[in-house]
């Protein structure tokens, strides 16, 4: 759903296209997802939003760099998406 010209400028990171058509990347995308999850996650996202974007993105990049050491690596978690959902992800 993201135009090809816009895709080329996006970082190799989490990207969310909102209903309003905004592209959110890195920590902004993460906070948007947390807000949509609701409950405790919405509260945590609200707390994290008070930090400057530069700091949030730095922490996001730090966790991304060491995520396998923090969370481990599981080869059995690669999902197979049904055709209806497959079109929503980049090839």
3D architecture notes:
The chain contains 5 helices and 2 strands; from the N terminus they run H-E-E-H-H-H-H. It starts with a helix and ends in a 5-residue tail after the last helix. It has 91 residues and is mainly alpha-helical. It has one domain (4-86). A hairpin with a 5-residue loop joins strand 1 (15-17) and strand 2. Helices cover 56% and strands 7% of the residues.
Relevant terms:
two-stranded antiparallel sheet, single chain, 91 residues, mainly alpha, 2 strands, 5 helices
Instruction: State the helical fraction.
Output: 55-70%
Enumerate the strands of the largest sheet in spatial order, edge to edge or round the barrel: 1-2
Helix vs. strand class:
mainly alpha
How does the major sheet shape up?
A: 2 strands, antiparallel
Q: Radius of gyration, Cα only, in angstroms? A: 15 Å
Point out poorly predicted stretches. none
Shape: globular
Extended strand count: 2
| Distance, first to last CA | 12 Å
SS summary, helix count: 5
Quick structural gist:
With 91 residues, this protein is mainly α. Helix content is 56%, strand content 7%.
Q: Secondary structure elements and their pairing?
A:
Layout: H1 4-9, E1 15-17, E2 23-25, H2 26-37, H3 39-48, H4 53-71, H5 83-86
Antiparallel strand pairs: 1-2
